[in-house]
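Sequence in, structure out. Go.
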Amino acid sequence: MSVRLPAMAWRNLWRNRRRTVVTLSSIAFGTMLAVLFTGMGDSNFSDMIDLAARMGGGHVSIQHPEQLEIPTFSRTVEGASGLAERALEDRQVERAVLRIAGNVMVSSAEQSQGAGFIAFDPDEEDSTTLSVLEALSSGRLFASRGDRGIVLGTGLAEKLGVGLGKKVVYTLTDKQGEIVQAAARVVGLLRTGAPSVDSSLCLLPLERVQALLGYGEDEVLQVALFLRDQRAAEASAKRLSPRVGPEAVALPWFAVQPELSAFIAMKVAGARVMEVIIMLLVAAGIFNTLFVSVMERMREFGIMVAVGFSPGQLFRLVMWESLWLALVGLLGGAVLTALPYWYLSEVGLDLRAITEIDLASGEVAGVAVMPVMHVDIYPDHLAAIVCAALLATLAAGLIPAWSAGRVAPVESIRIV
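Output:
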């Protein structure tokens, strides 16, 4: 018997319009929630990783193999410019900059405070590689890599009791383990929004710190690499490690910043659990719709078998109904998601407007948490959601389809 199962399945769906509309609504709404929920996570975590990279050692950091375990100014990277040039040959690497970072003691006439510092080349870096540069609240940045100034976080400046133009002395332990000091004037103040950063960070010119620590002209603590896609950090680090030689190693951001990595991993795992729950609830609703539909049509299926339908055709008929539900539900989900996705992508959700908590001061592992939530889902994550919704819908139709295929004509026809 030649039948058009897709057309028959489509007509069967609309024999009970209310039930079908409710099922399609659950698929569309579940898809919308999954897309927006995942998109918010992708955008938020990507921004945090990029911000952390721009505040630290980049998406990938080239440094001495033992520097991560026991940080010291004696474990340096020599020939840093050559390493940067080789790294830029990698397809993922967009920028490579030289830095020295560590701990310093900053003293004023009134007070002394321990702090962290980043020494950079102002001719080579901007806010796209060092995010704190855009947080300059007053004053200026360095005029050259040999500038005799210092830029302090606003909190650190308050602790030291100094302002713009005031003199401070910073103390370090050089490459040989000797205590060295240099004087500098405060030329700028930073306000990042992360309290721990503002109260414990200062910026110094690279050449000045190299001379103070006894480094060579092409000697630094790290070469910070910035990638086109932060998700490629691990693969890029593996490709680059053989190129940088035995005296250095390439490390992805999550190895250098394990606290932030653990926080993001925990949040991603929670998001995945919520997505699975959403899909299970959607699948349960679809299963209920199809199973009830099949049970109501057992007598009809018996007659169809009696006039020539095979069990396989009945099975495929119900699976076609499941497939139609999935396709139309996903189309409805796309329509339902379009407007809120556009709004959250372009405008975002300002959490400060719906809570009394001062989110501007929130931070994780020294990285400020953005108070405005945006969505920007990765294409592969969107494809995964669509495939998961499709497979969940088809899986929900397997048992009803199997029940339809096992119908016994004689017994089912007797059903009133």
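Check: Residues 355-361 have pLDDT under 50 and may be disordered. The first strand starts at residue 60 and ends at 63.
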